[in-house]
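Lab channel / #folding
Pinned by the channel admin:
"Please post every new chain as: sequence first, then the structure tokens as a reply. Keep commentary short and put observations after the output so the thread stays searchable."

First post following the new format, from NK:
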Amino acid sequence: MKPFLIILSLVFFTTISNGQKAIVAIKDSACIGWKVIINGNTSVCRPGTIQFTASEQGGTWSSSNISAVGTINQNGLFSTGSRAGTTKITYIVSNANGCKDTAIQWITILDKPNAGIISGDNKICMGGTIQFTTTGTGGTWSSSNISAVGSIDQNGLFTTGTNAGTTKIMYIVTNANGCSDTAFKWITILNKPNAGIISGDTTVCMGRSIRFTSSRSGGTWSSSNIS
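Reply from TO:
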């Protein structure tokens, strides 16, 4: 005897007010227990993205409220839109048995703060400082490469270190939603020349002169209280 496959269908009836019975659901037994699951974050800061995945391939992705808070492509990548809010992510898929399932996940799109724009010099000679300011508020200052070229305090004052080089000045603001924004500015720390050591008498009688020399060349001489 050749093997054969029997597919059962489950038919559910309900009684309506006039005593008639109506079919409310029909599902093949082959579909029982078959369910699609989607995975992805439930919130995202704007602007941002969420990559969704599904337990079954070959379905279609869609999102509600697409003109406002974001859209999802057919690779499951959701990209935020022009404002915050909520949207429903939907994934619909069918399998080879003709079973169809829909997975839904609600997500929240959150506004992130504004770290503003950093103002301050973009280069400095070693041994100096730069005072930085920003149009943002409520954040913290930091700099990269702090062990070499300098550091910045929480008042925005950058002080050079032991080496010349470049560093990134950052101002980071985080709001109550956990969303953050970073403003940054690259600066260059320059080696300054060595003026050497001046040699010459420290006193002189009026009407006389002193010849000064320096261990370094290429500079210019000047004096205070010239009048």
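NK: The chain has one helix and 22 strands.
TO: also worth noting, The two ends are 124 Å apart (CA to CA).
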